[in-house]
Amino acid sequence: MLAQQLVNGLVLGATYALFALGLTLMFGVLRVINLTYGFYFSVGALVALWLARSVGLPIWAVVLLGGVAAGLVAVVVDGVLLTRLRRTKAGELPSLMVTLGAVLALYSLSAIWLGTEIQRFPFDFVDSSAFEIGDLRISLVQILIVCVTFALVGLLFVLLHYTRVGLMIRALAENEDTARLMGINVDAIVIVVSFVSGLLGGVGGVLIGLNFNAIQPFMGETMMLRGFAVIIIGGLGDIRGALIAGVLLGMFEVLTASYISSSAKEAVAFGALVLTLWFRPTGLFGRKEVKRA
Amino acid sequence: MAEWLDDFFFTYETLIHGIGVHGLLALSMYCVMAVGQLSLGQAAFMGLGAYTGALLTLKLGLPFYVVLPASAFVPALIALLIGGPTLRLSGVYLAISTVGLGEVLRVIYINFESLTGGALGLSGIPMKASVSLIYALLLIALIMFWAVGRSRIGRAMEAMREDEVAAGVMGINVPVYKLGALIVSAMLAGIAGCLAAHSSSFIGPNEYGFETAVTILSFALLGGIGTPLAPVLGALVLTALPEVLRPLADFRLVINGMIIVVAILFLPRGVLPLRLRRSA
Q1: Considering the entire predicted model, what is its pTM?
Q2: A236 — alpha (psi -120 to 50), left (phi > 0) or beta?
Q3: Which of A18, A211, B39, B156 could bridge B32 with an S-S bond, Cβ 3.0-4.6 Å?
Q4: Class assignment of domain B12-266?
Q5: What residues of A are in contact with residue B85 (Cβ under 8 Å)?
Q6: Which residues are listed as membrane-spanning (chain A) (predicted)?
Q7: What are phi and psi of B17, to 5 degrees?
Q8: What are the tens digits of pLDDT across the range B139-170?
């Protein structure tokens, strides 16, 4: 029983980690707490659902295209909302508020357009076969989720540390003005980072959609709480921290649901968030925050 | 009272209650933003006040003058719990840690069914919050904010809003002011929630979520936070607007969201760019 719970927790945690990665990347590089990020999660899932139902694409194409669609939405949203604020160096709170207003408008519009009923993938879309080792049951979807997560994390790591674009992204994360002075096309890098973050969020949405098979426009909203808990626990802007914290949170949630009560599960993320803020405000692996005037 | 006035009150009673309650909520948002912070937990604080008030009235039958302060006290405790650690950090932490508060409380309201009525909420709450009480409290709150705003404390808050580091260097105890502002704002939101519960006779677990939190922020941003009156006027406009323009009712949340976007991008000082006047 415990082994099964740990597997389920790992799968859930992998999607949390994937979701949080894009969020923490956005904060780490662009210095924006972007609340529209939850919407990219919904976009990924909704586009995947549409592709699977109406176009009839196979599962790998659905995951990929769902992510790409979310990435493109992220680029457009970032361009419309945040370019102006970035030019005037408006700081963290105005950009947070503008994305907050935008996300309410986006969710409400998509709810008016698509309705809020829960929708599902076609009956035989997801291969429901599973490996069984003794009592332990691991479905193909679960394996897919974990593999996609680790593949994307690996790709992100390679992108950031072994490519020229990655070097530019890290330079931008360090200091925008200096990056500009070094001849880096900051606007282009911002687009790349938005796209990659949106893609990570969107793929997260598709995978969660596949895992629970319940999709509706507001699904990204409840995910944001988890996303924020993970990036705070892991340390804002810390990719390795987000990965570890995401997996840990997933495990804790599943264990809480099975050994305490399923309703207590919803409070785990928030409890962990508040505890982290009290005792390790810079996150589990975070460095001390430097105050700058 | 003239007959047409009677009719008017009868037809628009909920709207009149709503404007008063939303005015208080807008002030609670103003209180946090006046020190340069952003809380997304105002709706959650409101819900705590509403549930505390409704439960004390329904289960214990306490008189309203006991219920009302109690419903300010519970949100204040939660504000202390969250604000204690976050307000020592940079501005975004409070926003992040309050964004999920409403969601967590919703799950609690739904699952503690024996106490909170679960998904059905609590109904049959006696209508103890009269229009005059709501508006009297709103007026008192406005006057108090006005007086505080013109005092030494108000000047300190404005200095923090403009530049936190500089304010700290000038000897302002920044964390204490921020925590104080958050607690006062949580109390106000709790009172507003309690008044709302005792004027609509029903409360449900889904009324205090993300949408409500953003709507409260849109009140403050439409008015701007130059003076305490501006957010109240913002609340007035945004509460009355869907009534006046019925066809827009479905798009109410879309409009509230767009207002925030436009206000931040193009009108950083709000639609009413007023400032408190004070002698040098």
Answers
A1: 0.82
A2: beta
A3: B39
A4: mainly alpha
A5: 274, 277-278, 281
A6: 6-30, 37-53, 59-81, 93-116, 136-160, 188-212, 267-286
A7: -55, -50
A8: 998 888 888 878 888 888 888 877 778 888 88
